[in-house]
Amino acid sequence: QLESQASLDASALEEMMHELESAQKELLDQKNIAEDDRKKWRDQSEREEDEEWHKKAQQYEAEVGEMREKVIEAEKRLEVDMARHDQEVMVLRDECEMLHVNLKKSQID
Q1: How far, in Å, CA of 33 to CA of 17, rounded?
Q2: Strand (E) or helix (H) holding 58
Q3: Angle at 88 between CA 86 and CA 89, to 5 degrees
Q4: How many Å apart are CA 18 and CA 24, to the nearest integer?
Q5: Local structure of residue 45 (DSSP, 8 states)
């Protein structure tokens, strides 16, 4: 059960990483579209437009940064959870071994 929880945690992390990659691709596509639009309308208020696209690019970069931070936090939580699960599994194995030894002793007696 603990191993399946760790597997689920790993799956959730993989899904978050996939979402991050998808978001990065979408943001890159949006940036490319925005750059194409900027080229078409360059004759109109070039300075104002450049400032607007710069702000949008900064916003997109900030969003990607936030997503990266969330993935890093999730990875850290997963590592902690997996370490805890590993420790719990070791304790359970030790308990099982002790029960097995006690069972053998009781059968001998």
Answers
A1: 24
A2: helix 46-108
A3: 65
A4: 10
A5: S
pTM: 0.43
Give the Cα separation of 94 and 100 in Å (integer): 10
Most confident of 1-15, 42-56, 71-85: 71-85
DSSP helix/strand/coil, 39: helix
Cα-based torsion angle of the residue sequence 90, 91, 94, 96 in order, rounded to the nearest 10 degrees: -110
User: Distance (Å, rounded) from C-alpha 64 to C-alpha 84?
Assistant: 30
Q: How confident is the model over 19-55, as pLDDT tens digits?
A: 999 999 999 999 999 888 877 776 677 777 778 889 9
Rg of the chain on CA atoms, in Å: 27
5/11 Cα distance (integer angstroms): 10
